[in-house]
Write a structure and sequence with these properties.
The complex is a heterodimer of chains A (81) and B (153).
Chain A (H helix, E strand, L loop, with lengths): L1 E5 L2 H7 L3 E5 L6 H11 L4 H5 L2 E4 L2 E3 L11 E4 L6
Parallel strand pairs in A: 1-5
Antiparallel strand pairs in A: 1-2, 3-4, 3-5
Chain B lengths: L1 E4 L5 H6 L8 E8 L3 E2 L2 E10 L1 H18 L4 E7 L1 E4 L3 E9 L2 H18 L2 E7 L4 E3 L21
Parallel strand pairs in B: 1-5
Antiparallel strand pairs in B: 2-7, 3-4, 4-6, 4-8, 5-7, 8-9
Helix pairs in contact in B: 2-3
The chains are: A alpha+beta (81), B alpha+beta (153).
Chain lengths: 81, 153
């Protein structure tokens, strides 16, 4: 399956685009998505390790399945306020 | 009122939005762009957010605040885009019958918002450097608690 990952802040700036499409197995989890993201975009390695993944606008644990995920995002450490 | 805006924040309106006839305490926090961080000078900040999630996380935090304190109304407005020195990037207002609840809830909301609401700032320094701020402290931010709708009492 193809999953689009929304990018923000330095991830968006580093790649010069606000999302990436990843090819994942049909039963892929959040952990699999992390691996594929770093594999396809090694420049994001350090940031991905420090980031959360959000699935349908909720922070997701690494063992969560992405099969039914509608919206996936990479959430680097936040700095609002 | 919970919102993200690219316009200047009207803090008077944010405060007025929590007014309540049964409340004697109205707390307003306004966060502004600070010029000096140690010896280093900031020119301006630029904020961006993941709007749908930011609004939903702020709504969850407000629901959690209502569970913890006897507060009446809460408003949070966060600005995105360029925020110049001395200009507001965030306003949080809380009302309650008595002051301790709104002081504590406002402070707690700010702390949690800074840890888990998906908003990011880009620091533009006077020395010409620019950088996205992704705090290192503590490594990964803690995974937030589940939504109040799912949480046990």
């Amino acid at each position: 399956m193809i999953k689009r990952v929304l990018l923000f802040a330095s991830a968006k700036e580093t790649l010069g685009q606000d999302s990436v499409d990843l090819e994942l197995a049909a039963d892929a989890t959040v952990a699999d998505l992390r691996k594929q993201l770093v594999n396809d975009y090694p420049v994001l390695n350090d940031l991905v390790a420090r980031s959360h993944i959000a699935v349908d606008q909720q922070f997701a644990l690494d063992d969560m399945s992405l099969t039914d995920a509608r919206e996936v995002a990479l959430i680097p450490p936040v700095s609002g306020g | 009122m919970i919102s993200i805006t690219d316009k200047p924040i009207d803090s008077t309106a944010v405060l007025a939005s929590v007014s309540d006839p049964d409340c004697g305490a109205n707390v307003l926090f306004v966060g502004t762009t600070r010029r000096m961080t140690g010896q280093r000078e900031t020119t301006r900040l630029e904020y961006e957010c993941y709007e749908a999630m930011a609004v939903s996380k702020m709504e969850s935090l407000v629901a959690l605040a209502h569970e913890q304190w006897p507060i009446a109304k809460v408003s949070i407005v966060h600005r995105v885009g360029v925020v110049e020195i001395e200009t507001a990037s965030i306003a949080v207002a809380v009302s309650s019958p008595h002051r301790s609840a709104s002081f504590e809830a406002a402070s707690w909301l700010l702390e949690r918002l800074k840890q888990e609401v998906p908003v990011w700032k880009r620091e533009i320094w006077a020395d010409g450097q620019e950088e996205w701020v992704h705090p290192e402290t503590g490594g990964l931010p803690e995974l937030p608690e589940r939504d109040p709708s799912e949480a046990s009492p």
